[in-house]
Amino acid sequence: MAELVRIPPGHGKAVRVEAGARVRLVNTHGAQVVDGWAFNAYDLREFMSMEATRVWNGRINVVVGDVFVTNQRRPILTLVEDTSPGVHDTLMSACDRYRYDLLGCTGYHRNCQDNMVEGLSELGVTPPFKVSGSWNVFMNIPVGEDRNSLEFRPTVCSPGDHVILRAEMDCFVVFSSCPQDILPINGEGGQPPREAHFEVLA
Fold this sequence. Notes:
The chain is of the alpha+beta class. The chain contains 3 helices and 10 strands; from the N terminus they run ββββαββααββββ.
């Protein structure tokens, strides 16, 4: 049995994954955005790039069978299964402390960028810099009818919906249970973050 790892509400967790192994990420309560990153296990300067991934696949969002590529245009993860409605986001930058300052927070607010560092640090790994471009799993950011504007909407997932990612190289995979509680991405009215879970499959 694979170990089910809990991502605490508003925190980050990471795991080292060998090429060919799969990671199953579960939206445990059905209303939680999870930011995701991946780094080459031998050179953290090579990381999963949303910009390059959009070019590789020729679309804004990924669908089952699509490949995530790195800033060196090499495959790092493949989306092999998705039981959710398939609504995810590759456009929005991961939140950081500056984002929450702009949203009116007067003190420190947990954020996905710091959660990325938190998750890697638990493995004894320090990224050379913060990577803002995350795959925002279960995040609902539709493009407006004008083909230009973006909207922040709540997730459309059900409890237990999951995605499965296959590693195409040895890599670190990082997840953040997004702490966003001001905008409605985790539920109308700005719901507090919830836990999510993941497991590594053979």
